[in-house]
Structures are given as C-alpha cells and as structure tokens.
Amino acid sequence: xxxxxHESIRDLGxxxxxxxxxxxxxYLLTEQGGLYVFGKATNGQLGLGSDTRSSKIAVPIENIxxxxxxxxxxxxxxxxxxxxxxxxxxxxxxLWDADAQ
Length: 101
Hints:
By secondary structure, the protein is mostly beta strands. The chain has no helices and seven strands. It has one domain. It has a four-stranded antiparallel β-sheet with strand order 1-2-3-4, with no helix packed on it. Strands 5-6-7 form a three-stranded antiparallel β-sheet, with no helix packed on it. It holds the Pfam family RCC1. It comes from Cystoisospora suis. Keywords: Repeat.
C-alpha cells in the first residue's frame, strides 16, 4: 500500500459547502459563497494567474466580488456562476467546438 499524507483545511472563515475536483486540482465552495482552490494549475484552471503553476494550500480566488452560487470542474477547466448570473471560466476546454449548439 501507498501512504499518502493529508492535511486538514482550516481557518477559511466559513464552512465548506461543496467540493469540486478536476484532474489534479480542487475547488472548495464555502457557505458564504467564497471560493478556494488548490492543486495543479498547468493550464490556468485555478484562476490564480498565469504565473501560478500549482498551490499546495487552499487559497482564495480574489477576483470575484460577489457570492458564488455554483462551481463545476472539468479535466483542465473550471467554471463558477455568481448570484447575479455572471459566469467565470479558467483553464482550457479540450475538444471545444465554437460551432456547437
């Protein structure tokens, strides 16, 4: 067996309501509508800017200024929908077709 160490995620200021995962990265949605991310960001899927390749600790996405209602993660992409209906997308869509309906 392979032992994988783990750490407790604490002090986010709010309880975690939902967890969403992609390939090697995770999004945490808090009860207050905050968004925290960690893991690989080789395609920008963490939403932390192009200079960030990974994060071993949960860090907030700070460029969304309202409550996040929902999050969805794909293999290399992430999407968030805010309370007002704005959609934010990070990362890349593989096999994306601009003509798709």
